[in-house]
């Protein structure tokens, strides 16, 4: 009753005010004021907004928790639901579609979650995604103290039960953000074609790394480890990174340095990566102008150019910027970080990167060997070591005598499910490739001899003249 009478007197006041307002306030503005007065009087609801990214561009951990938590909460009342599943996920993933709601009950009250996705008006920037948590004002304390804690705890359980790895890349639209997709790299140490001793050394190194929390603390070193993978294209550098992530159950951050315009942006990007992750910078020789660093060093000799130097550093990503940051600030605020650099040309790298202590392990990913071939044959054709195929001897002999990448061998083995057909195809491919290589070698030797001869005769002529 009392609510009704309050409503009646409020409505009367509003109506009275409205008729006065009609005379002095323009129609459009009047409409907004009226609806605002009505909604604020009646609204007993409170809304919390959980945006995907924080203001500084870091992924909001609460958003991730909410996303996981709501998976189990979506029921028949939600009209539009997004479904997803990857081979590694045991169950189908449900998530709210744009502008959809779900009601959740906690203790003796209800809350409502709504998912909102706003397309950018300029078509350039990233979509803005957030969840709204809507509930009665009177539950404010409980929502903050217990409901949200329950959401986080449940999300943690879901995450640890599922162990879905993610790969983060920098957003195409707004380079400020990392965007994640489920990492579904099939590579494991078992399927990796590598010398068994090398493989074991890497796995032992990783095992030791994850177990040594106390050691790193005791010696005052950051709990991080760096690997430099080098070798020709198609020898398995990216596959090894996938195998490492699967082995450790770490997420990957794939950093394209060319997408970063200066050291400040680099710093921000690195600071917004999470623990237990692998930071990957592929083709480090191509992605950084090594001259940058040399130029910096030269310029530091001249006092007059120090402001110019500063401006330049602000405008570019330098190797020294990257290394300083990896060694310094970033290391001191994270745990269980792995950094992997890859290159096709180790000799092109800046000595600063190769300096002892910089990268903990240098791993040479090289051409296919006989034992690498056996692993690939087991992966693709299911042939076990105990019962080798009759063509094995000839194939192994050829592989050991030439430079052929595991990618090339794998490509041939995929051609047929029939082991004999695939192996015969590989044998023919190897023979052709060897002939091609031998011909090239002969040609190169011929040119070398000819050049030598020409030089010699030139030298003689010159001697005769003098
Ligand atoms: N050592 C390996 N073990 C198993 N498969 C391999 C290996 N190397 C290459 N492959 C196969 O070849 C494909 C390409 O290899 P990958 O991308 O790992 O090579 P990469 O060394 O990273 O090459 P790039 O230098 O061009 O990046 C892989 O998807 C995989 O199927
Ligand atoms: Mg690669």
Automatic annotation (TrEMBL):
<protein>
    <recommendedName>
        <fullName>AAA+ ATPase domain-containing protein</fullName>
    </recommendedName>
</protein>
<dbReference type="InterPro" id="IPR050747">
    <property type="entry name" value="Mitochondrial_chaperone_BCS1"/>
</dbReference>
<dbReference type="InterPro" id="IPR003593">
    <property type="entry name" value="AAA+_ATPase"/>
</dbReference>
<keyword id="KW-0175">Coiled coil</keyword>
<dbReference type="Pfam" id="PF25568">
    <property type="entry name" value="AAA_lid_At3g28540"/>
</dbReference>
<feature type="region of interest" description="Disordered">
    <location>
        <begin position="292"/>
        <end position="313"/>
    </location>
</feature>
<feature type="compositionally biased region" description="Acidic residues">
    <location>
        <begin position="295"/>
        <end position="304"/>
    </location>
</feature>
<dbReference type="Pfam" id="PF00004">
    <property type="entry name" value="AAA"/>
</dbReference>
<keyword id="KW-0067">ATP-binding</keyword>
<dbReference type="InterPro" id="IPR027417">
    <property type="entry name" value="P-loop_NTPase"/>
</dbReference>
<comment type="similarity">
    <text>Belongs to the AAA ATPase family. BCS1 subfamily.</text>
</comment>
<dbReference type="GO" id="GO:0006950">
    <property type="term" value="P:response to stress"/>
</dbReference>
<keyword id="KW-0378">Hydrolase</keyword>
<dbReference type="GO" id="GO:0005524">
    <property type="term" value="F:ATP binding"/>
</dbReference>
<dbReference type="Pfam" id="PF14363">
    <property type="entry name" value="AAA_assoc"/>
</dbReference>
<dbReference type="InterPro" id="IPR025753">
    <property type="entry name" value="AAA_N_dom"/>
</dbReference>
<dbReference type="InterPro" id="IPR058017">
    <property type="entry name" value="At3g28540-like_C"/>
</dbReference>
<keyword id="KW-0460">Magnesium</keyword>
<dbReference type="InterPro" id="IPR003959">
    <property type="entry name" value="ATPase_AAA_core"/>
</dbReference>
<feature type="coiled-coil region">
    <location>
        <begin position="423"/>
        <end position="453"/>
    </location>
</feature>
<keyword id="KW-0547">Nucleotide-binding</keyword>
<feature type="domain" description="AAA+ ATPase">
    <location>
        <begin position="223"/>
        <end position="369"/>
    </location>
</feature>
<dbReference type="GO" id="GO:0016887">
    <property type="term" value="F:ATP hydrolysis activity"/>
</dbReference>
<dbReference type="InterPro" id="IPR003960">
    <property type="entry name" value="ATPase_AAA_CS"/>
</dbReference>
């Amino acid at each position: 009753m009392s609510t009704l009478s309050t409503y009646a007197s409020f409505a009367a006041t509003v109506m009275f005010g409205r008729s006065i307002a009609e005379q002095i306030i323009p129609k459009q503005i009047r409409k907004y004021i009226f609806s605002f007065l009505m909604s604020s009087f009646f609204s007993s609801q409170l809304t919390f907004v959980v945006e995907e990214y924080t203001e500084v561009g870091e992924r909001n951990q609460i958003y991730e928790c909410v996303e996981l938590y709501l998976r189990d909460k979506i029921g028949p009342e939600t009209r539009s639901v997004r479904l997803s599943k990857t081979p590694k996920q045991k169950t189908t993933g449900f998530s709210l579609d744009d502008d959809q709601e779900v009601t959740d009950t906690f203790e003796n009250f209800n809350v409502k979650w709504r998912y909102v996705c706003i397309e950018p008006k300029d078509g350039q920037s990233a979509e803005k995604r957030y969840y709204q948590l809507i509930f009665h004002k009177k539950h404010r304390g409980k929502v903050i103290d217990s409901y949200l804690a329950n959401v986080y705890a449940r999300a943690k359980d879901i995450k640890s039960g599922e162990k879905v790895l993610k790969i983060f890349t920098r957003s195409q639209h707004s380079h400020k953000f990392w965007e994640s997709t489920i990492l579904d790299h099939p590579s494991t140490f078992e399927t990796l074609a590598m010398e068994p001793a090398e493989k074991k050394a890497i796995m032992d190194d990783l095992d030791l790394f994850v177990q040594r929390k106390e050691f790193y603390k005791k010696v005052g070193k950051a709990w991080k480890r760096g690997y430099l993978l080098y070798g020709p294209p198609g020898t398995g550098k990216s596959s090894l990174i996938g195998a490492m992530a699967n082995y450790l159950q770490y997420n990957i951050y794939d950093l394209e340095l060319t997408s970063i315009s200066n050291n400040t942006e680099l710093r921000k990007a690195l600071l917004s990566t999470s623990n237990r992750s692998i930071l990957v910078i592929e083709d480090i020789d191509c992605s950084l102008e090594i001259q940058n660093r040399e130029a910096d060093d030269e310029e530091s000799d001249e006092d007059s150019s120090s402001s110019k130097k500063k401006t330049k550093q602000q405008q570019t990503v330098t190797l020294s910027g990257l290394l300083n940051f990896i060694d310094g600030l970033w290391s001191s605020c994270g745990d269980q970080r792995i950094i992997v650099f890859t290159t096709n040309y180790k000799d092109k790298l800046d000595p600063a990167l190769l300096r002892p202590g910089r990268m903990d392990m240098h791993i040479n990913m090289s051409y296919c060997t006989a034992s690498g071939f056996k692993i690939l044959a087991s992966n693709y054709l299911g042939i076990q070591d105990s019962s080798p195929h009759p063509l094995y001897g000839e194939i192994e002999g050829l592989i050991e005598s030439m430079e052929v990448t595991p990618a090339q061998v794998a490509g041939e083995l995929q051609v047929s499910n029939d082991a004999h057909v695939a192996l015969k195809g590989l044998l023919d491919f190897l023979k052709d490739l060897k002939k091609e290589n031998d011909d090239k070698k002969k040609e190169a030797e011929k040119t070398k001899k000819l050049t030598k001869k020409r030089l010699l005769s030139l030298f003689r002529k010159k001697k005769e003249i003098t």
